[in-house]
């Protein structure tokens, strides 16, 4: 059987379908670290953490902020079921800056008053959103 030459990428959140298209390469924030997928990849199921993902068509990469969920990889298909997936252009930078400031304030409180894991996740989400939004601004 011929090896696939492209990947059918689907990115879905509980609210909506974000992406449905043929792509050449995908990189995802897996729970055990970032991993890349090219056509012909070995099948796998991965859980996702908070981080940046990108997909490439030709020379062009599109970036999204991702938080939690799963990715199913097949040789000719990548399906991302994410709790949150935001394209760079949909990110509200002022909101992410405010969330980052709140998380910083929480982390600086005394440990007894603070849910550290919650503050850590809020901080990483905000930093990821700012990083992805900045990529949209520099790519023009
Ligand atoms: P905030 O503290 O600003 O509400 P959050 O990290 O608590 O942010 P989430 O629970 O991650 O928010 O997301 C709730 C919804 O709001 C999701 O649909 C998410 O896509 C959207 N959202 C959160 N922050 C932003 C942002 N900066 N830009 C665009 N959409 C956002």
Short description:
The chain is of the alpha+beta class and 140 residues long. It is 28% helix and 44% strand. It contains two helices and eight strands, in the order ββββββββαα.
Task: Tell me what you see in this structure.
The chain has 140 residues and is α+β, with helices and mostly antiparallel strands. The protein has helices at residues 93-107, 116-139, and strands at residues 7-12, 17-23, 25-30, 33-37, 44-47, 51-57, 60-74, 77-87. Helices cover 28% and strands 44% of the residues. Strands 1, 2, 3, 4, 5, 6, 7 and 8 form an eight-stranded mixed β-sheet that branches. It is elongated, with a radius of gyration of 16 Å. It starts with 6 loop residues before the first strand and ends with a helix. The structure holds adenosine-5'-triphosphate. Residues 84, 86, 90-92, 95-96, 99, 122, 125, 129 line the site of adenosine-5'-triphosphate.
């Amino acid at each position: 059987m011929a090896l696939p030459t492209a990947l059918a990428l689907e990115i879905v959140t509980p609210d909506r379908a974000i992406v449905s298209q043929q792509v050449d390469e995908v990189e995802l924030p897996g729970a055990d670290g970032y991993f890349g997928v090219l056509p012909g990849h070995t099948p796998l199921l991965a859980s996702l953490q908070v981080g940046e993902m990108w997909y490439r068509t030709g020379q062009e990469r599109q970036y999204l902020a991702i938080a939690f969920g799963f990715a199913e990889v097949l040789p000719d298909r990548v399906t991302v079921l994410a709790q949150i997936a935001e394209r760079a252009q949909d990110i509200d930078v002022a909101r992410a800056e405010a969330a980052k400031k709140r998380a910083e304030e929480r982390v600086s409180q005394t440990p007894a008053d603070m849910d550290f894991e919650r503050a850590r996740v809020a901080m990483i989400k905000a930093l990821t959103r700012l990083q992805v939004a900045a990529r949209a601004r520099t790519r023009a």
